[in-house]
Amino acid sequence: MARVVVIGSINMDLVTLAPRFAGPGETLLGDRFLTVPGGKGANQAVAAARLGAEVTLVGAIGDDAFGAQLREGLEREGIHLGHLRRVADAGSGTASITVAGGENSIIVVPGANARVTPAQLEAASDVIRSADAVLVQMEIPLETVEATLRLGHRLGVPVILNPAPAQRLPVEWLKLARYVTPNQHELATLLGADPNDDFRELMRQAPCPVVLTRGGEGAWYREDGEATHQPGFAVDVIDTTGAGDTFNGALAVFLHEGLPQAVRNACAAAALSVTRLGAQGGMPMLDELNTWLTTRT
Length: 297
Description:
The protein is α/β, with parallel strands linked by helices. It has one domain (3-23, 31-293): Ribokinase (UDP-N-acetylmuramoyl-L-alanine:D-glutamate ligase, 3-Layer(aba) Sandwich). It contains 11 helices and 13 strands. It has helices spanning 40-50, 65-76, 118-123, 125-129, 142-155, 171-174, 184-191, 199-205, 243-254, 259-273, 286-293; strands at 3-7, 11-17, 32-38, 54-62, 84-87, 93-100, 103-109, 133-136, 159-161, 179-180, 210-213, 218-222, 228-231. It has a 6-stranded parallel β-sheet with strand order 5-4-1-8-9-10, with helices on both faces. The chain has a 4-stranded mixed β-sheet with strand order 3-2-6-7. A 3-stranded antiparallel β-sheet has the order 11-12-13, sandwiched between helices. A hairpin with a 2-residue loop joins strand 6 (93-100) and strand 7 (103-109). It is globular and about 50 Å long. The two termini are 25 Å apart. The model has no long low-confidence stretch (mean pLDDT 94).
């Protein structure tokens, strides 16, 4: 059983299904509305837990109804919450998501996620020290992202940085990551480069190993040599929300099997996730993933 620590955001997703995206100033009748748990940190924690990992989540929720629901959901997934902080004077994070035509548009309000601190991370250092992999994203304060990278490097624990939402980061931070897992736009933003540049050149410019996700095309990964392609898996797409989080959670779980196998399994898990509705709702269980993979070459 892989031991994975996730440092990241926890949100309630407010999801609207619509026939198309509304334009500026336009009122559009939607098809359905629902609230589902989300946030990149929580999503990646759930993905890893369903794939058989022992998962600890370091994060924060508000002292509100959403916070109570979010905690209950994480407990049902078997995720360790000893380092989950409840913030009395902030609401839980929310993400307003519109789904139309198999694509999504998202606006995130951080709420309590803005209170995930380096001190909270240090308090979890014993758990991090014994982890096989650490996942961190960028929906929490950047000082905590930096602290995660430095702590993982100091302890010799591989840190996977999922740089979303993307912004430029100092090169010295990136050098501390075992892997960064952007899409092409995120990688260009991370490096301060032109997003229209060839993605393989962007990967060569990165000061650390890159696992680049490219939607249905699959993923490309590079450690020391040239970039290697892992093809995607053809599926009927229902909802792409959470596909990247599923990929990252799976990558952390299977990293001990070597990067090529981890990337293949991550692509397969992400493909399965988009065949169902919801960020966490589509995330596969380990038995489901293994059975599905036996039918693929």
